[in-house]
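re the bet — no i am not wrong, look at it urself. input seq straight from the record:
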Amino acid sequence: MQKRLFDLCCSMTLLFLLWPLLVLIALLVKCTSRGPAIFKQKRVGHGGKLFTIFKFRTMRVESEELHDVVTDQTDLRITPFGKRLRASHLDELPQLINVLCGDMGMVGPRPLTTQTAMMRAQEVPNYHKRFESLPGITGLTQLRGRTKNLAKGAKSAHLLDLYYIRHQCLSLDLKILFRTVGAITNRAGI
């Protein structure tokens, strides 16, 4: 209950403070590429329940059928403005609506597509345990970075997710959020 109240307060406060930025980004996405400003995709959430995640669209519309393909900054499907959004992580801001709706928390394991979740469940023992918590906008895995070895990365991420699920509390969430803000501002050169 305390976590949900914290998530609600954070998401409402951030949406209230950032609404001009959200509108500006949506307009820039629309002006720099065709298609909707918001990308919607089904993801696996708490208890294995599917929900629709919201992000600012960073890829060309015709690329959406390949949404389960892992991308990096050199992917030609990413729009020029989309590269900036991804580098700054501003493409993730619409997920504040997912937090407000109760599908996500501010902190937790990242929500996966059904295809990725099924693939990882075959590779990583006890992978279903990651669905015992609400997925989050950020988490320990995002702070630790990604590895090029996908199998090793999935196992490492799973261990971090399990650590978070076992130890989740308000102080851990605050620590992760502050470290996330620090990591984003350092990468952006702010």
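see?? The beta strands are 38-44, 50-56, 105-107, 136-138. told u. also The longest strand covers residues 38-44. so pay up
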